Amino acid sequence: MSKRKICVVTGSRAEYGHLYWLLRAIEDDPALELQTVVTGMHLSSDFGSTVNVIKNDGFQISGKVKVLSSSGKDEEMTRPIGRGLNGFTDIFKKLSPDIVVVLGDRFEVFSAAIAAYILQIPVAHIHGGELTEGALDEGFRHSITKMASIHFPAAKDYADRIIRMGELPRRVFAFGAPGLDSIRGLNLLTKKELEESLGLKMESPTAVVTYHPVTLERGTASAQMDELVSALDEFDMRIIFTMPNADTGHKVITGKIRKYAEKNKKRVKVFTSLGQIRYLSLLKHADLMIGNSSSGIVEAPSLKLPVVNIGDRQKGRIKPGNVIDCGYSSREIKKAVKKALSSTFIGSLAKLKNPYGKGNVSVRIKDRLKKVKLGEELIKKEFFDG
Question: For 121-125, 311-315, 336-340, which range has the lowest pLDDT when averaged over its residues?
């Protein structure tokens, strides 16, 4: 009996962290064949060439689809989709997977979903049904949902939204966020080990700062970063920047970060890619997180980390009690940071529950991919009217 071929597409360091334990679960199942296709930021030296992390973790790369160029302009989000369509079509024709797995809402996985859908390969979508009203990801995510045949949302509210979009309830499985499996499954570094690895003494307070472009707000990245660094100047704290993703405007943000770090060498460190263990260890030992990353909403609550969430990039997502929303101005950011560092707020997180689950998700997803019946019924999707 031939093995069922599960093709997992990954395009970024963060996404790979969410998919790691699913890749392991598929690889360890004798009834399944894992195919790993790498694209996006993984293949760019500007973002740390993190394809090497995947290789070092022992996964065989089944195919590569290079989509990024050196420009950060709007048209360089449209052209990668076109390049992705060509590349994924060739790869999927070569690999002949039984199911293609994509996670989230990036433009490169959007092109992978289109290619699989047209080639009549069932698409399984992780982290659908969410809202990010400040980003182009919003449209990509919901479009992938309508092309996907199997859905693994991270929360019940998201599952309900997918069903309202016409997807069959029996194809929607709200197991939780697979990225939380790493918090359960990895041996995170002690504070001393982390300090040695980062080359920075994590004196209190220490903040991890991750700021991505708000892609539906054109030309705002420079002004927003100016407000952010102005707010950071008001606090005597250690700052660890992680670099933004490859969305339009990322070069502006990267430039501002490097300039700020150069002026504040004694208390600021910048990392293109920390890797999963160091990044989660940082969330465990830092005093707060500042920016607009989804990890502040999904992973940080499990580690009881206060998060200052700036602006509209994550608007619409379920926000746990560790998240303090604020606007873009320096004044609003400073106010939120002071609240996040207060003993009252920190104490309120002691019994915080993460709405995205407790982990142990990846094996459940793998089992569903293994058992779902393939064939015409999965491809010819029925619209559910409720």
Answer: 311-315
